[in-house]
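Anyone able to model this chain together with NDP?
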Amino acid sequence: MTTLLAVVPTFIARLWTEPLAQYAPWLKVVIHGQDDYKPEEIDYALGFRPPPGLFKTLPNVKVIFSLGAGVDGFLSDKDFPKQIPLVRFVDHTLSREMMQYVVLHTLMFHRTQRQFDRAQAQKQWAQMFPPRRTEDTRVGILGLGEIGTMAGEYLARLDFPVSGWSRTKKSVPDIKSFAGDGELEAFLGQSDILVCLLPLTPATYHILNKKTFAQLPKGAYVINAARGGHLVEDDLIAAIDSGHLAGATLDVFETEPLPATSPIWTHPKITMTPHVAAMTDPRVASRTVADAIAGHMKGAKLDNVVDFELGY
Ligand code: NDP
Ligand code: OXD
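re: yes, here you go
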């Protein structure tokens, strides 16, 4: 029998076992931390932020599936078995939620919604806080992959001038492409709203820092929906408090949950959400994993395999 190890929180294990039973009735599913299993019986595994060292104990595992688009939670495990393919979760519904989050927070800033919220709290009829012209509000997206491209396309449809920065040059209608470290400064210099949708790798760690912020136009806004490790939180707060940046929206943090002592919780110019920009839907992901395992067993090529050299 083919066996899948699911490394998911045990209190929500049912959300995974039920759709997996529906889409892959031929698969035995064992839950890490709940069911007894022998390491050698595991053929496939899935998870999001697995305990370090776990996968190296599975001598017969053939493919490991990430339940997230980002795989930094796997690659931070120094014992991750890099001879085993790691497949990341790429799905329209996940990209769509991320796109919606980016569009929502771009518009919240652009349409000065937080100022109106404050006025409402004081019962003020504040016919003020006009938005900047849309044509003059340039959105720059760090990371022009699955999610960054979709977000950029929707923002371009709303008439924002959109550009994207990636490792390799892109040709996407209505999105100006910048590529590589050599074009980063030019890209930042024309980004009034900077959106981070990069994978977290050694090359992108702490990329949102005081040097980056200094290269943004005065009054720029930052949206980080990628990983907390991209951002130097103290540098962001200093850049906002100095008046250089107008504010930020953060979904992800260096330490999650965000510690109660963090000044981010109460900063008047930071909007924060608790890593919910997009949530993997267990039904969708179960079907994707079931189909990929069925295909792999028949010898089909796997999609969305992580390049361990690049780290994404
Ligand atoms: P992709 O792999 O499709 O895209 C990554 C993009 O980043 C590519 O355009 C890539 O360039 C670019 N990139 C990577 N490294 C560099 C570098 N060193 N310099 C310049 N560009 C670089 O990823 P996704 O769009 O699917 O996901 C992006 C991230 O979003 C995930 O890794 C995850 O961290 C985050 N995420 C967060 C969620 C949340 O709830 N907050 C939910 C889902 C994802 P190139 O195309 O040239 O290779
Ligand atoms: C992801 C996430 O990477 O939810 O998919 O953070």
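Residues 68-70, 278, 280 surround oxalic acid (ligand 2) (CB under 6 Å).
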